[in-house]
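It is worth pausing here to work through a concrete case rather than discussing structure prediction in the abstract. The textbook approach is simple: state the sequence, then state the predicted structure, then interpret. We follow exactly that order.
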Amino acid sequence: MTKFDPNKAIASLEKAGFILESRQPQSFVQYALPPVNEAARQGKARHGIQQQIPWVIEQLSLAERRSGFNIAKLDLSLRFDRLANNLKGLIKKYFGPKTTVDVKVSHDGDVWCLFEFSKPVTKNLKRQTDSSRHTEVYGFAGVKINVALEGTTLIVTQSEHFGFGFMPANTFVQPLRLALDALFLREVATDHELPVAYASLFEVRVPLVGVIAAELKQRGVTGSAVDDLLPLLLQMRPGQAPLMRYQQSHAHCRISQLERGDGWQLATMYPLPIEVLEAREVAGRFSGIDGHILAGRTSKAQAILITELQTRPSQLYLLRRFALLALSKGSVTEINAITPGLKIEPDYKGFLSLLAAHSIEAGDDEETLRVVSELGKQMMQQIPDADTVSAFELVMPETLGDAWGARDVGRATEC
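Step two, the predicted structure:
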């Protein structure tokens, strides 16, 4: 183990822009990062689009103790408006200009990514345009992104997947990857050899120090200075624990000796999505299904799922993945496989989405009305300003209108 060198550590801090905050007897030294003028900070072109880092270090102090430097205080905020703008641009670029994209953020930090897709086709005509003999098929989808902390590890999750109709094959995989880019984490992790660990299809873990590194680089600190500083940012004092609180426009993280209160809670008190907890519980028991899905080997994953479900027909871990793969591959005929899941979790959006897709395909107007209405009800209750989401303007109303057409022309016209 390398012996701690205080002079080298101080040199690294000063190189990164830290300034001496206080010096006391018995070798106590504290360095602080000066504040940055947020109003003057401009976005930068990344991935071919204009983006602005969503993280802001409001306060960061490191103190030297006998064993070395550790974090004395960290106040960090995540600006949801910037995250939403970054995500919207990345999703639009990845899925193409014909994709309608909305990103909505709830007061407790749920980031809803909502898409409406279209694709021109010349066979199996379903919609005739006025300007061409080509037609278009449509679909929509959504997913919820959350950012949380466990100790000094940042947890980025996706959950609450839903949608039906046409959608690209990786619709339910790509949002989590794009979220890492929108958070400026994937690039900094690569540059500084920080681990990015996909714990499951629904969860990725990145050291919190990666956020600090990303923010420092945006301040103009060189890559080598960040590398020198990283070992000093990995340690908290004994008794410290990350605290979090959510506001409408920010998520705040604090590491300090201050008492909890004023809305602050231990970061671990915020519940993780059921999909994440479930995946942790059964991690490693199902032949790397998530690894196959993340690598694009969906046929391999589907084959394993079918085999496993023959002996474990009520295993929700398997049923969730079966539903999402069936939706993204357009395989909606094997609806009986998710019947146990519907009995256990009748409100789960993934199961309802597959049931809706099957009902539409089968021409079952009554079931289509029931299931699509239930999905719409959930979205209106959970997604902020859902009635203003442009991604809901075509597929949902027209699906309901077509289903009402055989029963009530007036209601069909309203849709």
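Step three, interpretation. Residues 6-34+55-78+205-269 form one domain. Residues 123-134 have pLDDT under 50 and may be disordered.
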